[in-house]
Design brief:
- The chain is mostly beta strands and about 230 residues long.
- The chain has a single domain, classed as Porin (Beta Barrel), CATH 2.40.160.
- The protein has 2 helices and 10 strands.
- The strands form 2 sheets. It has an 8-stranded antiparallel β-barrel with strand order 1-2-3-4-5-6-7-10.
- A hairpin with a 6-residue loop joins strand 2 and strand 3.
- The longest helix is centred in the N-terminal third of the chain and has 16 residues.
- The N terminus and C terminus are likely disordered.
């Protein structure tokens, strides 16, 4: 939680540090590509889990940004009583709406609320399972294993966040996500340790945090009126 708050605070500072007051005569629209930097922190916080996430959005009309996110995840968890492995990928499709409409600031900065539909496809297995039978004549033994099984999951999530243009066509921002599981494939042996893109495999709700950097590929330019309250 402390590290999450540090991400939040640093991006909050960046957002207001790079807000600029200037006169603009055109609005650029283009494909914006992003990578989630917070995923790389898992190498230090949770070495058993590795993943990455990419995203792409486009402003189809003023302040509305359809978005698609894609990611992959692997887990290699070694415990005293078992080893667990999983791998999988996920997609999220949805849209963000920007509520920051004031032209007193950089017109591309965003305070947004998003809605996503997510789906994941993964496989997982376990081996070297040690069964502790204290009262058994045989004591402990390590013959157990759970065969590989495939799981699909579907969920929805609500995503508020902020995004700021720090340099021309370069953006940085954060978002948090509240998730609700809609459907998860049945697993007769064990719950998944972590569902890619969702979180705890045994929970019906989940939370997520993204800290991303983006680059916009300029495609369209639209003429706009100069805000009357800005000086030349």
């Amino acid at each position: 939680m402390k590290k999450t708050l540090k991400y939040f605070f640093s991006t909050y500072v960046l957002f207001f540090l790079f807000l600029s007051v200037y006169s603009q005569t055109e609005r650029i629209k283009g494909l914006r590509l992003g990578i989630d930097l917070s995923r790389f922190s898992l190498y230090y916080l949770e070495p058993s889990r590795t993943c990455f996430q990419l995203s792409a959005d486009f402003e189809v009309i003023d302040n509305l940004y359809p978005i698609i996110e894609y990611g992959q995840q692997t887990v290699d968890l070694i415990k005293p009583t078992y080893n667990y492995q999983s791998k999988g990928s996920y997609y999220r499709i949805g849209a963000d709406y920007n509520f920051l409409t004031s032209k007193a600031h950089n017109q591309y900065d965003m305070v947004f609320l998003g809605l996503r539909f997510g789906t994941a496809n993964m496989s997982h297995s376990a081996n070297n399972i040690t069964v502790d039978t204290i009262h058994s004549y045989w004591g402990q033994y390590s013959d157990g294993m759970v065969p590989e099984n495939n799981i699909k999951a579907y969920w929805i999530e609500v995503t508020p966040g902020i995004r700021a243009e720090i340099f021309k066509n370069f953006f940085m921002g954060w978002s948090i996500s509240g998730r609700i599981m809609l459907k998860q494939g049945k697993e007769y042996y064990m719950d998944p340790y972590n569902i890619p893109g969702y979180g705890n495999g045994s929970s019906k709700t989940g939370m997520g945090f993204n800290y991303s950097i983006f680059y916009r590929i300029p495609i369209l330019k639209e003429k706009i009126k100069k805000p009357a309250n800005l000086k030349k």
